[in-house]
Amino acid sequence: MSDIQDRLEIFDAIAERRNERRRFLRFAGGAAAGVGGLALLSACNDDNDPTPSPTPTPTPTPSSTSAQLDIDVLNFALNLEYLEAQFYSWAAFGVGLNPSLTTGVGTTGTVTGGAQVNFSDNVVRQYAREIAQDEAAHVIFLRSALGSAAVAMPNLNISGDANGAFTAAARAAGVVGSTGTFNPYASDENFLLGAFIFEDVGVTAYKGAITSITNKTYIEAAAGIHAAEGYHAGLIRTILYAKGLQTPSLRTAAGQISDARDSLDGSSDLDQGITLPNGTLTTTALATNVTVQASNLVPTDSSGIVFSRTPAQVLNVVYLSAGTGRTSGGFFPNGINGNIRTT
């Protein structure tokens, strides 16, 4: 059995164990998800789980510029979590978030699209379920941390039809033709590519946002969510690469999506696909120079560090629009809620 297969079986076992332990987290139904969400998540941990995330401080009163900025940054993150949670919830379970988890400051939006994926690969199914639960938990946590300052979910477009944001993104990347349709709910492979659009953006968004937060409790919470998003991105990139060994077009499509994100977020060439451009890795950090065939499952710079995106760059990607001054588009057809909303 290959090394990549061994790793995938380990990941699958971990995912199954965690899902069994957290199965009762009914984020798509029941008022308890909104009112007692944090207590419920804490109860899901068994004796072998790590220490749960710290309880957030009470809703801050914006008495200073820094306090208001903390609120703005967390609300910016909450908008992104609404998007991810709705996409994964629909893909994994065929339902969206409970409406009690979507209200808040501003107009509560609706979700266009969404469907359950008929997974053929049990590994992908388990990953989808685990990530869906994590993203719903992020929504609950951020809403609790923000309290009455939490923004409502904006209008979202996660449709897989010809007018959907996924199709627009796939066309722009060249994954499908100019008149083609990309449905992320149509197959395991399409789901993975759809998830790939989001996960790397989430990792770089949280890394970029942490330095703007001043409240230490919020910093720790944001760092914890950033780490979770990093694990999610690693899982998606790993299984895409593994499936790409049999279907090279998957690796090509991932590279095209990466290039498209790069074209949207500015002139710097920072984003990376799941394979190195030349297919090799050369390092001088070892005793001798070694050149080997290599994947690119962890997109880092020469120092082994993941890059950051500013909020404006993140919005460029999710609005599917380059340049400055845009306030809506793509996955957020009417923009996001909160004070940080312009590219």
UniProtKB/TrEMBL annotation:
Stretches the record annotates as Disordered: 43-66
Report biased composition (Pro residues) as residue ranges.
Answer: 51-61
InterPro entries per record? Pigment-catalase-like, TAT_signal_bac_arc
Name the Pfam families for this protein: Ferritin_2
From the Swiss-Prot or TrEMBL record, give the protein name. Answer: Ferritin-like domain-containing protein
Species assigned in the record: Sphingomonas jinjuensis
Q: List the top taxonomic levels of the source.
A: Bacteria, Pseudomonadati, Pseudomonadota, Alphaproteobacteria, Sphingomonadales
